[in-house]
C-alpha cells in the first residue's frame, strides 16, 4: 500500500487530494480528501461512501495533490464527468510514473 505522509499543522501547508479508487467489482470511484491514507482506510472499513461499501476492498489507483481545496474539488468533479476510458488512461499513466 502506498503511504502518504501529511503534516496539516498550519493552514498554508494543508494538502487536498482528488483521487480515484478501483473497487472490487472493477468500477472506479472518485473522491476528495485532506488525508488520503485515512480516507482509503475508511473506505475499506466500510465507513466511507455508500457506493464503495458494497464493493470492498478498494485500492487507491490515482491521486492528485492540491494546495487549494477548491482546486481539488473541481478536479474531483472533472473525474466524475470523465468517461471510464479516460479515467483508465490517467490511472495507467500514473501507475507507470509511480513505478518508474
Map the helices and strands:
Blueprint: E1 16-22, E2 28-33, H1 36-44, H2 50-53, E3 59-66, H3 69-81, H4 84-99
Antiparallel strand pairs: 1-2, 1-3
Features:
100 residues, 4 helices, alpha+beta, 3 strands, GIY-YIG endonuclease, 42% helix, 3-stranded antiparallel β-sheet
Descriptive account of the structure:
The chain has 100 residues and is of the alpha+beta class. Helices cover 42% and strands 21% of the residues. The chain starts with 15 loop residues before the first strand and ends with a helix. 21% of the residues are buried.
Give a nutshell description of this structure.
The chain has 100 residues and is of the alpha+beta class. The protein is built from 4 helices and 3 strands. The two termini are 16 Å apart.
- Sheet with most strands: strand arrangement: 2-1-3
Helix content: 40-55%
**Highest CATH level, the class:** Alpha Beta
Largest sheet: 3 strands, antiparallel
Category by helix and strand content: alpha+beta
Annotation, overall tally of beta strands? 3
SSE arrangement, N to C: EEHHEHH
Distance between the termini: 16 Å
The number of distinct structural domains comes to 1
Shape label: globular
What's the alpha carbon Rg, rounded to whole Å?
Answer: 13 Å
What's the pLDDT, averaged over the residues? 89
CATH superfamily: GIY-YIG endonuclease
- Low-pLDDT stretches are none
Strand residue percentage: 15-25%
- CATH topology heading: GIY-YIG endonuclease
Task: Please identify the oligomeric state.
Answer: single chain
Work out the helix count: 4
CATH architecture: 3-Layer(aba) Sandwich
Amino acid at each position: 500500500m502506498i503511504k502518504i505522509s501529511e503534516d496539516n499543522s498550519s493552514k498554508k501547508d494543508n494538502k487536498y487530494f482528488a483521487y480515484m479508487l478501483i473497487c472490487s467489482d472493477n468500477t472506479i470511484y472518485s473522491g476528495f480528501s485532506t488525508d488520503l491514507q485515512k480516507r482509503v482506510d475508511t473506505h475499506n472499513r466500510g465507513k466511507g461512501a455508500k457506493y464503495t461499501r458494497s464493493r470492498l476492498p478498494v485500492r487507491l489507483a490515482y491521486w492528485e495533490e492540491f494546495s487549494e481545496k477548491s482546486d481539488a474539488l473541481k478536479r474531483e468533479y472533472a473525474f466524475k464527468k470523465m468517461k471510464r476510458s479516460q479515467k483508465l488512461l490517467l490511472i495507467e499513466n500514473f501507475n507507470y510514473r509511480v513505478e518508474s
